């Protein structure tokens, strides 16, 4: 303690806190220019890597050569009283035309 | 070759890449494992969202929602109706959302029973929303929002 020390010895013991006597220009550049640039560089490289990886995004008008897919609802997620109806097979061309509704659009 | 006999290769056999001739003369070869993964431009997260939307639509409305993504040919309407009729019950209570990216055509087909619940006006509204997303290249997002709109239009099943 400051008070205790002065009382005990009768003299102030002063400790000098200083920075390094000299900071070279090279150290200044390293800390304030090279380090931030390195951080920016790493982050920009990470964004580039993510863009190149992963499945290609669909672009309107691009060729679609994936196999045809047909999804239905997950049977486990439908309530029990909902009758389970799974795909029964190929449609009968000669079956009587039923009244279907709906809508269509193109892009 | 008789059962229980060891199939051996000739002594001067040159093993290909990934192959090795064992001490007994048997050929040990490494084969690449081809996982049966769904192919498509969707990420697993997008597939999960589509699955969630489909399940929620079917559960909320009591109708059978399904999504077809593939070629529909020249007569897209006819082929989409054929797909709907190939489902159980002739697709009476089914709603099919058929997307053909090659023709850039979207068809929503409702069966006779489903049509009473889901009027064509609601389908048209969903088509407009989905087409707007597809134009921007967002297939999964348009699909999910379209399914939500169809669900809202159909409502909950009547209590009888």
Automatic annotation (TrEMBL), chain A:
It comes from the Bacteria. This is Uncharacterized protein. The chain crosses the membrane at residues 29-48. Residues 86-107 are annotated as: Disordered. It comes from Tamaricihabitans halophyticus. Keywords: Membrane, Transmembrane, Transmembrane helix.
Automatic annotation (TrEMBL), chain B:
InterPro entries: DUF5130. It comes from the Bacteria. Pfam families: DUF5130. This is Uncharacterized protein DUF5130. It comes from Tamaricihabitans halophyticus.
């Amino acid at each position: 303690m400051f008070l205790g020390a002065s009382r005990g010895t009768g003299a102030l013991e002063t400790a000098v806190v200083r920075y390094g006597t000299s900071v070279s220009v090279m150290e200044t550049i390293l800390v304030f220019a090279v380090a931030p640039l390195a951080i920016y560089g790493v982050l920009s490289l990470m964004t580039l890597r993510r863009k190149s990886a992963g499945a290609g995004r669909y672009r309107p008008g691009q060729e679609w050569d994936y196999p045809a897919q047909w999804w239905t609802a997950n049977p486990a997620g439908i309530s029990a009283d909902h009758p389970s109806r799974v795909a029964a097979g190929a449609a009968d061309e000669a079956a009587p035309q039923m009244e279907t509704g709906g809508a269509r659009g193109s892009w | 070759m008789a059962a229980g006999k060891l199939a051996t290769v000739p002594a001067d056999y040159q093993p290909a890449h990934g192959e090795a001739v064992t001490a007994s003369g048997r050929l040990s070869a490494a084969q690449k494992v081809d996982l049966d993964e769904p192919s498509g431009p969707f990420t697993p997260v997008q597939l999960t969202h589509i699955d969630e939307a489909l399940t929620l639509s079917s559960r909320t409305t009591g109708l059978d929602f399904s999504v077809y993504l593939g070629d529909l040919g020249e007569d897209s309407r006819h082929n989409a109706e054929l797909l709907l009729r190939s489902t159980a019950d002739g697709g009476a209570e089914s709603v099919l959302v058929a997307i053909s990216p090659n023709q850039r055509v979207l068809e929503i087909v409702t069966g006779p029973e489903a049509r009473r619940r889901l009027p064509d006006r609601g389908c048209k509204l969903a088509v407009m929303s989905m087409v707007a997303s597809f134009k921007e290249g967002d297939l999964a997002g348009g699909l999910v929002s379209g399914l939500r709109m169809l669900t809202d239009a159909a409502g909950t099943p009547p209590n009888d």
